[in-house]
Design a protein that fits this description.
The protein is mainly alpha-helical. The protein has eight helices and no strands. The chain starts with a helix and ends with a helix.
C-alpha cells in the first residue's frame, strides 16, 4: 500500500506532499534518530530539482536517458552522491546555456528547458564538502559512505517497508 502511495506521490504531487509522506515513514521507522534527521534534507535536496524536471517532462537518469515519470527507482538512482553532484553541475550548466545539456533528449526537447533553482541542492551539497565551483574536485569518502546509509533507508521507505 505504501509503495503504491509513494509511487503515486512521486508521479504527481509536489515537494511538500512527498516530503510529508517520507517524514511520516521515517517517524514510523525504527531507525536511529541520526539517520532520520539526515535523510529528510537529503530527499528535499533531490526533489528540489527532480520535481521541476518532472514538471518540464525532462526527467532523466544519471546516464542521461529520458524517463517519462518520477518513480521510486529513478529517485534512488539520484541518491548516489556522485550522481547528485553531477546532476547539480549538469543543471547549473543547463541554466547558464538556456537548454538542457548532457542528456539523450532530442535537441528540440532540450531547448524547452527552463532554468531550475539550485539553491536547496547547492546548500545541501556544500554542507557535505562538495565543491560547487570545480566539478572534478573530489569529496571525502566518508560523506559518500554516509549517503549510502541514507540511500538504504530511503529505499526501504520507497519500497513500503515502514
Amino acid at each position: 500500500m505504501i509503495l503504491h502511495s509513494m509511487s503515486t506521490l512521486l508521479k504527481a504531487e509536489n515537494n511538500a506532499a512527498i516530503l510529508g509522506a517520507i517524514a511520516t515513514a521515517l517517524e514510523r521507522s525504527d531507525e536511529a534518530p541520526f539517520w532520520r534527521e539526515k535523510s529528510l534534507p537529503f530527499c528535499e535536496a533531490i526533489l528540489s530539482v527532480l520535481i521541476p524536471l518532472r514538471a518540464q517532462n525532462l526527467l532523466f537518469d544519471p546516464e542521461g536517458r529520458p524517463h517519462a515519470e518520477l518513480t521510486p527507482a529513478l529517485l534512488i538512482r539520484w541518491c548516489d552522491l556522485l550522481s547528485l553532484k553531477t546532476l547539480a553541475f549538469t543543471l547549473a550548466l543547463s541554466n547558464k546555456e538556456g537548454k538542457l545539456l548532457r542528456t539523450k533528449f532530442s535537441p528540440d526537447l532540450c531547448s524547452t528547458y527552463q532554468p531550475i533553482d539550485l539553491e536547496i541542492l547547492g546548500k545541501y551539497l556544500s554542507g557535505y564538502s562538495i565543491n560547487l565551483q570545480d566539478e572534478w574536485i573530489d569529496f571525502p569518502i566518508t560523506n559518500y559512505n554516509l549517503h549510502i546509509g541514507m540511500t538504504t533507508l530511503i529505499a526501504k521507505i520507497l519500497e513500503g517497508k515502514f
